[in-house]
Amino acid sequence: MLPLFWLSSVLAFCLSRPPPPLLERGSVYSGSVRVLSLPTQFVSIKVVDEGVGSLHLSGVLNADGRVGFCLDEEDRVSFVFDDAVKRKMERRFCKVVDATYDKEKDVASVSVSIAPLRIRKTVNLTRVLR
What we know:
This protein is of the alpha+beta class and 130 residues long. The protein has 2 helices and 8 strands. The chain has helices at 2-16, 83-91, and strands at 28-33, 41-49, 52-58, 63-71, 77-81, 94-102, 107-114, 119-129. Strands 5-4-3-2-1-8-7-6 form an 8-stranded antiparallel beta sheet, with helices on one face. It starts with a helix and ends with a strand. Residues 1-19 have low confidence and may be disordered.
């Protein structure tokens, strides 16, 4: 009976943990990346609510909009962009191919591919504001 009680206590502890830092309201993650001789691309995401952020892009791609995000058990991040941002990314043949979150360093790494240039770049978004 003791192992069952211990298992239920561990399970209750795991389920009661606070959400990962990525989901804290008001957090701002920012980063930049340079592609060949093009201007530097700046990316900033402010967490507005759990799973919803305000996205600001400036550089080669300029856009402001909403982004939905979800963090899975393997620290992979899924993004859903609003229509305006999605259209601008499609016009530049740009898409997010991979995104991860490092809980220890509090850094999100987003890999983006640009089809016409046949390149893939990673931008590290570090927390700049809590």
